Amino acid sequence: MQNGGETSQASVDADKEDPRCGESLSAPPAAATGTSSPEKRRRRAKKQIEGERLISEQKKEAREKLREERVKQKETKKLEQKRRKEAADRFKSYRPENCLKRMTVCVDPVLLQDEGSDTLLGTLRAMEWRSSIEEQQLAHSITWNRELPEGEDGLSIIQEEQILMVLQLNEFMDMLSSIKEIQQENIKQVECKSLFNKLSQYLNTYAGKIVTLAVIGLSSWALWEEKRSGGLRDLDLEEALVFLQLSRNTSVIFLESWQDLADHACAVTKALSKRPMKLLTETPDLPFCVDGSWASGVRVQKDGTGLLPVWSRQIQQLNRVSPAVAAAISSAFPSPQLLLQAYKDSASEGDQKNILADLSVTSGERQRRVGPDISSRVCRFLTAHNPQLVLD
After folding, report:
1. Distance of CA 91 to CAs 86, 120, 256, 278, 287, Å?
2. Looking at the domain assignment, is residue 169 inside a domain?
3. Which H/E stretch holds residue 366?
4. Beta carbons of 214 and 253 less than 8 angstroms apart
5. Whole-angstrom Cα distance, residue 172 to residue 230?
6. Is the overall model pTM greater than 0.90, yes or no?
7. Alpha-carbon gap, residue 73 to 206, rounded angstroms
8. From residue 331, how far is each of 223, 309, 353, 356, 362 by CA, in Å?
9. Keyword annotations for this protein (predicted)?
10. From CA 274, how far away is CA 320, in angstroms rounded?
């Protein structure tokens, strides 16, 4: 019995020591999972990196495009600011006081033979205007040259079309005799060197020029004496003046002295200095209308803010209506409807035209009125029903 127990115990111990016995009793291997192979993982990582790189490039292109747009907007803004500055400088250069600085009064040397010419030159110096003594294409004349602002196309200096031809009384009487001979078809008797012949040749060459004859030293008694001694009648003088006006577009003014001539030359100079600004303000453009941006217009908010400046700018579109006049009208009548109602309440057409005439206008230190001319034009502008009506 003891030997049998020992034998069975030894058998159990042998089984424990035998490895084959353990293998036969171990659990079966687990089933294979869905884990990808290293090659697949590498391909997936490569695709992911490629996608991230593509997204990064797209973002970079978007940032670059946005940067280019911003640079372009800045350049456009700079160009717009430069254009506005040039336009503002050009507008300032057209002001009368600036035009006077660039205006030169040119006097023909022939006029210096008369002692009274010192009065003319002295007056020009007293006004601190530029003047020059140079030979003119039309003898006995005074002309005006004006320098253009920098940046203007074409010539840097232009000659105004206004010309003042200065004649003494005896020279004018000789011209009347030449005109009388021409009217009587005695053209051969007109000397080639006569002043009228020179005037005609000049106007034939320069058709756009406007010549004014200034006759100095002319009083009614002197004129009567000269006509009687020259065998001229009053009718001859009248016919000659009409002939000059119609055939040569030349007018005649009679002046007592060289001082009167100097005053007239100053008046012409001032008038010429105002012309560029008037031509600029009488352009048919409508600056109160918006053209692509608010730079040249007036922004109107939803609550109506900005309508008053628009109304004021609209009034300025009429010729020779300054911002000060437009401000006076828009202050008295803040909207077109109020002005239209005032026109309806007027008793007569005359009252309508004069509603704005007495409005006070403040321009610098000077006080003035709107005046009947502008008042009448504004009335026609708002009340007329004829689309072909000429307001000015």
Report:
1. 8, 31, 39, 11, 14
2. yes
3. strand 366-369
4. yes
5. 12
6. no
7. 50
8. 55, 10, 18, 11, 12
9. DNA damage, DNA recombination, DNA repair, Nucleus
10. 12
C-alpha–C-alpha distance, residues 84 and 80, integer Å = 6
Please check whether residue 144 is in contact with residue 106, taking contact to mean a CB–CB distance below 8 angstroms: yes
Structural domain containing residue 353: 307-383
DSSP β-bridge partners for residue 167: 215
Mean of pLDDT values over 302-310: 84
CATH code, 341: 1.10.150.670
Indicate whether 194 and 340 sit together in one domain.
no
- Return d(Cα 118, Cα 130) in angstroms, integer: 15
SS (H, E, C) 260-307: HHHHHHHHHHHHHHHHHHHHHHCCCCCCCCCCCCCCCCCCCCCCCCCH
**Reported confidence tier of residue 152, pLDDT bands at 50, 70, 90:** low
Give yes or no: residues 242 and 357 share one domain. Answer: no
What's the number of domains the chain is made of? 2
Three-state DSSP class for residue 16: helix
